[in-house]
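Ticket 4471: requesting a sanity check on a complex prediction with zinc ion. Repro inputs:
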Amino acid sequence: MTVVTLDEVENRLRPLAEASARAHWQMAGAATDAHRAVAAEKEIALEAALSDPALVTPAPGEGPFDARRAELLRLWVAPRQRPAQLAEQIIRLETELAGRFSAHRAVVGDREVDDNELDRMLLRSTDEAERRGAWRASRAVGGAVADELRELVALRNTSAERLGERDHYALSLRYDELDEAWLYGLLDRLDAGLAPAWTAERGAIDGDLRARLGLPPGTRIEAWHATDAYFQDAPPPVDDPLLDAAGEIDPVAACRAYFADLGHDVDAILERSDLQPRPLKDQHAFQTTIVRNADVRILCNLAPTLRWLETLLHELGHAIYDAAVDPSLPWLLRTNAHTFATEAIAMVHGRRGRDAAFLTRYAGVPAAIAEHPANAASLRRELLVFTQWVQVMARFERGLYADPGQDLDALWWSLVERYQGLPRPADAPAGAWAAKIHLTVAPVYYHNYLLGQILASQLDATIGCGAELTERFLWPGASLRWDALIERATGEPLTTDAFVADMAMRA
Ligand SMILES: [Zn+2]
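Returned structure tokens:
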């Protein structure tokens, strides 16, 4: 086997990674057959390069960062040592399903509606039948992808088993430098520790939902009463003035001014980004880096809502991280330190959507609305609701990979009932779980959102979101492992203290 140097590896992978990212960007913009085919082709080319066994053990370099560089390379390529045919089968199925999600539009009654319209119905409608229709429609794509998603899960498992792993779930955590026992210990501790706070908050949420929907006291809260399709967001209080005021905000101008004051010029990022909804376009939101340090983009589907203001802040948070990494680092290290590290930065900024100072200074919201107690109370509620939701997603996905042949509807609803307190609807669409796009396009990812929230609280409580954060946390890129970076930047290892304190906060 020829020995390759780290520089040679970077020169080989970089153009392939950039071409793949560019093709996926084009597919997200318009899920045509042609774009889908190119995206699959570019990803297959990258995967082929990554499966070269010579990359697992490159020539040891002597640069100051070369040990970490070689380790990151190993984590990237070792799980990709698999037959080309298997890799290709997985990628083709992934891109096929991703394209199907992008092109899918829900139908409520006899009307085709986009996700923004579904969101509006679930947030605003007081018509029980319409809510129920919108909720069912939001899950309909699940039935259309569930069988093939099971197939995809089995293929991912085959690939993992060939590498000696229990399944794809175990493999993914290992190569993401996360210990499964540690992660589930954390989830269990949060579950036990937050139980009293969750029970109390859930009671308050139910009261708010009944008041909002005009339901008699004691009415059982069902999945379609929540203000989003998965009960992953905190239902806003009944008298929340920001919901209407958010419609008056220019989110792009507000974010531009906000990030500029923190020392991040987002003009170039916004210039390359795709912000407005269109047919065939991916209805979700994401950030992508096509050329490290140089071409960083976000995709959104902006509507005049608080949710999209928060999402724009979130995605730009990811973007400024990638743009702020030390440009002199070698390519392999010129990226974020971990998926949950970039989620944390996105969440630090996403939380500004309810922050009185942000709302008055950058978004032009009148002080009486910006300082309304609903905003201060929302973080606590948001974090509790979201934590329960991650418990569902993380545990479901672990179960999905442990046994993709099991009754997944039963598994899904038992977890929703246990952690979110929502009963399984008698007429729940089959395969409703598969509507959650992450299971297809971002497998074994969801725990990163919770770790991101935990770290966001820690960063907020220690070094804030300004220059210190940039210098100590963003600038080093991936040159340090996540645990070392957190400890060096904040003075302590990753801890749930600040996160739990944020949830104990009373308005
Ligand atoms: Zn994110």
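Notes from triage: The radius of gyration is 22 Å. Leaving this open until the requester confirms.
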